[in-house]
Amino acid sequence: MNVPLTWYLLVAAALFCMGLYGVLSRRNAIGILMSIELMLNAANINLIAFWRYIGPEAMTGQMFALMVFAVAAAEAAVGLAIFIALYRSRNTIVVEDINLLKW
Amino acid sequence: MSVEQGVFIVLSAITLIGAWIVISNRNLYRAALGMVLSFFGVAGLYALLNAGFLAVAQVLIYIGAISILIIFAIMLTRKIMDREAVQSNNQWVISALVALALFGVIGYTLAFRVADSWAVSDAGLPSEAVAALGEALVTTYALPFEVASVLLLVALVGAIVIAREK
Known about the structure:
The complex is a heterodimer of chains A (103) and B (166). Chain A is mostly helical and 103 residues long.
């Protein structure tokens, strides 16, 4: 293992922070969802890197990553269904214009 | 620099360039393609970490399913793809500062505070890593496995109900 663990963690941190910027700055709901996927991937890189370097004999890290896969798939399906329903009723998915629940 | 480090740097560059396209491109469709590029880089990183099954699952689930689903949604809400449409809100400067500050804190901590203080294990991989993962799925982690299937079922039904034409 020639690559130090810290390198993986730094790449994952960079990916996470780019995703965070996307979530905070995008106006479009689909753009926000894509940034969330980036953040989930960053977390997955960390899980797999720690699995490989700290405890490769137990499968816990890979299991966690698989659960993240399942949650990401569920989240994308429900999220996009919500956006399509919103687009149908409000004709926009710009988050600033979606304030139905704002008091 | 060893070959492994070179491969790591190339894969990281692919991942981060893809992520940059996702967060910066005005055209949402191109942003989705950048996301595919980023996912490919992440799949390569998994392969480099000897997690072969996850690399394949990444290509199948993230690139094959989630990205295509997102591209479908972009196509179905077509008006928003206008090239003139402003894609970032008026708090993007402060968002960039927050993200950079977070990266600064994490990077400083990783590079100078905890640098390589992890108890890196010398244990080799299980000879049949995929078989071991499959066995763990139905023995130690049988409950999370079942819960994941229920979650996917609920999400499937929920997505159909929400998106259905009234």
